[in-house]
Specification:
single chain; mainly alpha; 3 helices; 4% strand; flat
């Protein structure tokens, strides 16, 4: 798949990235190569292949899920911008 300079500018705008106009053609070539690899991967036969969460047969080592007492709350809250009655105060973001 071949991307145009306008495609690259549009992707950069959507991703909120600055794009150096002098390198737009280079970016277009690199992104086109990436899309070509993805297209090649889409052609791979995956019938009968079970989904995996990890390529290695590993088991997750998890700690026990148990509540621990908070012993340093006052220390943590001493550096917070705003606290009251043991909780953090944050600006209202939803009206």
């Amino acid at each position: 798949m071949s991307l145009t300079a306008d495609d690259v500018r549009n992707v950069a705008r959507l991703a909120r990235l600055g794009a150096d106009d002098a390198r737009i053609a280079e970016y277009a070539g690199e992104l086109s190569n990436i899309l070509d690899v993805v297209a090649a991967l889409e052609k791979a036969d995956t019938d009968g292949v079970l989904p995996m969460s990890h390529p290695l047969d590993l088991t997750a080592r998890l700690r026990a899920d148990e509540a621990l007492p908070v012993t340093e709350r006052d220390l943590f809250q001493s550096i917070a911008p705003a606290t009251a009655d043991g909780v953090y105060l944050v600006p209202k973001v939803i009206e």
